[in-house]
């Protein structure tokens, strides 16, 4: 009987599918995350891995666990695995695209709206017993109607965000990508611009790109200086696409107006972060895909990819298709 390790508790549907396919499933339900070493020890006892919670699967980890027959990432992002090494070792790796696009875009939209109305800080005034009564001119927000939304990475999640912004606030959509997205241009009237124009014209700039060498700290002091002083920065992709100290300084110096983050660097964000004291900042604990529907769909997809491996089939959501050549 082949064995699978799942690194965090998941909706039961994912486990059921694996068991129905004849796999022996062990789920790590510990409160604290496994260390690299503990994960490696556990992996020695199994044939397949479902990586839930983005454990870093480095070159060393993969070389120590080259017996693995397949790895399913329960995430769309795959910056936490050394894919080149997995390919060299002939380990198929899958991710979970599409199924989380709507839920993640919902969080980007939620942050955009919440920041524009300073909703988290205003709500906290009540929680902390600090609401001094109705004010007419204090802590005012700004409206989104007809403003320009700049998207870095107009892929599956970016398009969902653009659709919501267009539908709700008739926002003008501009975007910057490695490749032009003609479908989105037709569907949403989205305008392709270079990165500097995106920075200069966006009233809201929302990040929906992968973390890579090219996007690491792409939003740094230089980039924030090029943004409008009324701009809102939203990141639901990966925390290290923005430089957190530079973002803090840009907000403190009034170079940009506000920020909404579902991802931070590091995660969890320190409770001491000055960002948490700012009324124009909303921070969430990486909840982009955290709905019952989406998390269930993610683990179903991950399970089906592992089942494909034991059935001798190609993983449907394979990331390193080269291994099948
Ligand atoms: C997940 C994510 O919550 O898909 C991603 O890349 O960041 C989130 O949807 C996380 O990866 C859970 O494993």
From TrEMBL:
<dbReference type="Pfam" id="PF02826">
    <property type="entry name" value="2-Hacid_dh_C"/>
</dbReference>
<dbReference type="InterPro" id="IPR050223">
    <property type="entry name" value="D-isomer_2-hydroxyacid_DH"/>
</dbReference>
<dbReference type="InterPro" id="IPR006140">
    <property type="entry name" value="D-isomer_DH_NAD-bd"/>
</dbReference>
<protein>
    <submittedName>
        <fullName>2-hydroxyacid dehydrogenase</fullName>
        <ecNumber>1.1.1.-</ecNumber>
    </submittedName>
</protein>
<dbReference type="InterPro" id="IPR029752">
    <property type="entry name" value="D-isomer_DH_CS1"/>
</dbReference>
<feature type="domain" description="D-isomer specific 2-hydroxyacid dehydrogenase catalytic">
    <location>
        <begin position="4"/>
        <end position="320"/>
    </location>
</feature>
<dbReference type="InterPro" id="IPR006139">
    <property type="entry name" value="D-isomer_2_OHA_DH_cat_dom"/>
</dbReference>
<comment type="similarity">
    <text>Belongs to the D-isomer specific 2-hydroxyacid dehydrogenase family.</text>
</comment>
<feature type="domain" description="D-isomer specific 2-hydroxyacid dehydrogenase NAD-binding">
    <location>
        <begin position="110"/>
        <end position="288"/>
    </location>
</feature>
<dbReference type="InterPro" id="IPR036291">
    <property type="entry name" value="NAD(P)-bd_dom_sf"/>
</dbReference>
<dbReference type="Pfam" id="PF00389">
    <property type="entry name" value="2-Hacid_dh"/>
</dbReference>
<keyword id="KW-0560">Oxidoreductase</keyword>
<keyword id="KW-0520">NAD</keyword>
<dbReference type="GO" id="GO:0016491">
    <property type="term" value="F:oxidoreductase activity"/>
</dbReference>
């Amino acid at each position: 009987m082949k064995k699978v390790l799942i690194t965090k508790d998941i909706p039961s549907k994912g486990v059921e599918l694996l068991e129905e396919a004849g796999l022996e499933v062990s789920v790590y339900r510990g409160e604290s995350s496994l260390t690299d070493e503990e994960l490696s020890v556990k992996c020695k006892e199994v044939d397949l891995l479902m990586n839930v919670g983005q454990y870093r699967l480095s070159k060393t980890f993969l070389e120590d666990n080259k017996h693995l027959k397949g790895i399913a990432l329960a995430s769309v992002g795959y910056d936490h695995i050394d894919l080149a090494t997995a390919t060299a070792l002939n380990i198929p790796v899958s991710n979970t695209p599409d199924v989380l696009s709507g839920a993640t875009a919902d969080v980007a939209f939620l942050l955009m709206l919440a920041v524009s109305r300073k909703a988290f800080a205003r709500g906290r005034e009540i929680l902390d017993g600090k609401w001094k009564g109705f004010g007419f001119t204090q802590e005012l927000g700004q409206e989104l109607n007809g403003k320009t939304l700049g998207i870095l990475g107009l892929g599956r999640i970016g398009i969902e965000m653009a659709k919501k912004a267009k539908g709700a606030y008739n926002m003008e959509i501009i975007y910057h990508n490695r490749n032009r997205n003609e479908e989105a241009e037709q569907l949403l009237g989205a305008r392709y611009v270079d990165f500097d124009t995106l920075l200069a014209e966006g009233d809201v700039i929302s990040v929906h790109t992968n973390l890579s060498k090219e996007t690491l700290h792409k939003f740094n002091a230089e980039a924030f200086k090029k943004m409008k002083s009324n701009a809102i920065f939203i990141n639901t992709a990966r925390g290290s696409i923005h430089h957190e100290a530079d973002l803090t300084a840009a907000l403190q110096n009034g170079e940009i107006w506000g920020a909404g983050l579902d991802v931070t660097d590091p995660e969890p964000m320190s409770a001491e972060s000055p960002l948490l004291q700012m009324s124009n900042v909303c921070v969430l604990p990486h909840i982009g895909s955290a709905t019952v529907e989406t998390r269930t769909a993610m683990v179903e997809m991950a399970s089906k990819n592992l089942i494909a491996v034991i059935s001798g089939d190609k993983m449907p959501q394979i990331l390193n298709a080269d291994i099948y050549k």
